[in-house]
């Protein structure tokens, strides 16, 4: 069974301030982001204000939906879920901790913690037992009868964590949970989160503070809506991890602020920021990557390309980035066979909705299988011709190549797929 809990492929979030006149004033809060969360991860998302940290967290946690791209959570596409199912899903699987606590002022601490679980019609004794265990773990058993205004900031936030954990979620989302706390309470809170992570709670946390991020296992740095650096802790100590994070934060702030034309630029060039890669021999085969295939000598669809991960084909050399932002390269001469298949996704376009079909490619080599989901449309026929020119065996049980010859335009081809591949459709 896969350990991947959340997988985001090429997601973008656009805030359109000119929706009626359409003068191109779209603001990208996220731009073509790939993300993967595995069971047991503790990922800290950092970046300057406006970099898209909270927007990414909201999209991953189902509180918001991306404008483009796909998010799968527990192997389900968020865009395909009915709003009632989505609410039930959040209740059963997800927990949320916010900077401003969002406690209900006229309820006691006990009732604030119990509020989510009461909705599930749990027995009173079960609720009481679970709250007492959480209160003891979080050291708030002495304030359960108090009201929020009678508690300190640290007690506030520990109450918010207890409320988030009372349903025993598999993933805990934290948006600046230490923003209103002093240093002592911040570190106390992070030790609690680290302890929860050691007990198999998966955590995604947004923070501005490198020291807070050093409690995690992975630091992901955002800038202008995109992921610029990913640092894995691996076997490093917390101090060593903090030094790595500080290096990335320093470079990805100062070096972006002062370009080469700035009078403040030093005459000595600063070192470039290098991503610290995941140490994984099978990193090319960890997941299926959504790509737009760019073939030398043929025009690309720029509208699709700017919201996609490009896969470049230069002769027989293939290169792209996986969801961990590792550079993947291989020679097409090593490919033994290619298996083509289709996948259907239910997509909502404003007041309209429709199934959209994409091609799945499995490129089988002696090292492993490169799994791709292809966003090319009419130009994919050139990719098929490229396979044949290189004398690679193509397994095509759904007769995708025939569909391209029979229906050269994407609109007709999508209608054809809908008629002939009803086994891929799920009624919504």
TrEMBL record:
<feature type="domain" description="ABC transporter">
    <location>
        <begin position="14"/>
        <end position="249"/>
    </location>
</feature>
<keyword id="KW-0813">Transport</keyword>
<dbReference type="Pfam" id="PF00005">
    <property type="entry name" value="ABC_tran"/>
</dbReference>
<keyword id="KW-0067">ATP-binding</keyword>
<dbReference type="InterPro" id="IPR027417">
    <property type="entry name" value="P-loop_NTPase"/>
</dbReference>
<comment type="similarity">
    <text>Belongs to the ABC transporter superfamily.</text>
</comment>
<dbReference type="InterPro" id="IPR017911">
    <property type="entry name" value="MacB-like_ATP-bd"/>
</dbReference>
<dbReference type="GO" id="GO:0005524">
    <property type="term" value="F:ATP binding"/>
</dbReference>
<protein>
    <submittedName>
        <fullName>ABC transporter ATP-binding protein</fullName>
    </submittedName>
</protein>
<dbReference type="InterPro" id="IPR003593">
    <property type="entry name" value="AAA+_ATPase"/>
</dbReference>
<dbReference type="InterPro" id="IPR003439">
    <property type="entry name" value="ABC_transporter-like_ATP-bd"/>
</dbReference>
<keyword id="KW-0547">Nucleotide-binding</keyword>
């Amino acid at each position: 069974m896969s350990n991947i809990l959340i997988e985001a492929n090429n997601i973008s979030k656009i805030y359109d301030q000119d929706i009626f006149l359409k003068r191109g004033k779209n603001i990208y809060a996220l731009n073509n982001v790939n993300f993967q969360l595995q069971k047991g991860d503790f990922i800290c998302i950092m970046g300057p204000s406006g970099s898209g940290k909270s927007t990414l967290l909201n999209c991953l946690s189902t509180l918001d939906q991306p404008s483009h791209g796909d998010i799968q959570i527990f192997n389900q596409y968020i865009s395909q879920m009915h709003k009632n199912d989505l609410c039930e899903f959040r209740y059963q699987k997800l927990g949320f901790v916010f900077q401003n606590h969002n406690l209900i002022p006229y309820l006691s601490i006990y009732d604030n913690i119990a509020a989510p679980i009461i909705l599930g019609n749990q027995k009173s004794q079960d609720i009481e037992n679970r709250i007492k265990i959480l209160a003891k773990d979080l050291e708030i058993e002495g304030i359960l009868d108090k009201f929020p205004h009678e508690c300190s900031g640290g007690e506030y936030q520990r109450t918010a964590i207890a409320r988030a954990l009372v349903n025993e979620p598999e993933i805990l989302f934290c948006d600046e949970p230490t923003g209103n706390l002093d240093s002592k309470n911040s570190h106390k809170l992070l030790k609690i989160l680290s302890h929860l992570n050691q007990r198999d709670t998966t955590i995604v946390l947004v923070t501005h503070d490198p020291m807070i991020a050093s409690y995690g296992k992975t630091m992901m740095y955002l800038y202008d809506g995109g992921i610029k650096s990913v640092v894995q802790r691996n076997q490093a100590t917390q101090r060593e991890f903090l030094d790595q994070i500080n290096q990335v934060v320093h470079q990805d702030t100062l070096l972006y602020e002062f370009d080469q034309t700035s009078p403040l630029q030093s005459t000595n060039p600063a070192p470039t920021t290098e991503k610290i890669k995941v140490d994984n021999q099978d990193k090319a085969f960890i997941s299926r990557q959504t790509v737009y295939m760019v073939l030398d000598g043929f025009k690309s669809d720029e509208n699709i390309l700017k919201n996609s991960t490009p896969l470049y084909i230069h002769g027989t050399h293939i290169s792209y980035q996986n969801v961990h932002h590792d550079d993947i390269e291989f020679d097409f001469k090593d490919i033994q066979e290619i298996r083509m298949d289709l996948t259907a996704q239910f997509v909502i376009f404003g007041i309209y909705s429709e199934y959209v079909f994409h091609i799945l490619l499995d490129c089988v080599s002696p090292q492993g299988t490169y799994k791709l989901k292809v966003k090319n449309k009419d130009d994919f026929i050139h990719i098929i011709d490229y396979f044949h020119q290189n004398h690679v065996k193509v397994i095509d049980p759904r007769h995708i190549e025939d569909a391209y010859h029979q229906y050269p335009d994407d609109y007709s081809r999508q209608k054809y797929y809908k008629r002939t591949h009803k086994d891929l459709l799920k009624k919504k």
